[in-house]
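Run log, item B.
One chain of 210 residues. Sequence copied directly from the ordering sheet:
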Amino acid sequence: RQQRAETAACENQFVRAAGSLKEIGSKLFSRPLEARASAEVLIDQMLTSILAHKDIAIHLMNDKTVGEDLYFHALNVSVLAMLLGREVGLPAEDIRQLGIGCIFHDVGKIDIPDRVLQKTEPLSRAERNLIEHHCAYGESIGQRLGLSVKAMDILRQHHEHYDGSGYPAHLKGPQIAPLARLVAIVNEYDNLCNQPNPADSLSPHEALSH
């Protein structure tokens, strides 16, 4: 009974957090500083609620029944990154900046048409190029929000790869900020589990193995 009650409570918090993300998104351009403040409040709430039940939170991420993919992706990446940050012993403020950066890591996709973002067939070269620009689009929005240097590193570098094969700057190894390296792993994991075409999605075990 206790486990069911905790699962239900955590699920409600998860749905409320996704709702908060939608509200934050509506303030991005009209009230950017208010949007950042709301994100900071949300991260503080998540640190004391959802992250306190990490096994339940991870279970909820694998529930494909809920819509609003972009909001739930940002939420999944935030929770997983903060959990991983705790496990590797990051300072509390770095974990907080991880959360803030992850909330906004894909904010640049707001400038990309849904028909490209939600396409289930292979992307053309032009479409891939457009999607790769979301890091630059996100950087300009992040500056308007007044995000910290560490959070901005996440917006810019969460698709960089250690061998230099990532984008947008093809950074290598220690050129990539430590928090951005962690987010790159978590972001890839959640993307593998939640493909635009559900038939292409991997199980959490398969994604982790990959």
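Observations after the first pass:
- The chain has a mean pLDDT of 89.
- DSSP finds eleven helices and no strands in the chain.
Flagged for discussion on Thursday.
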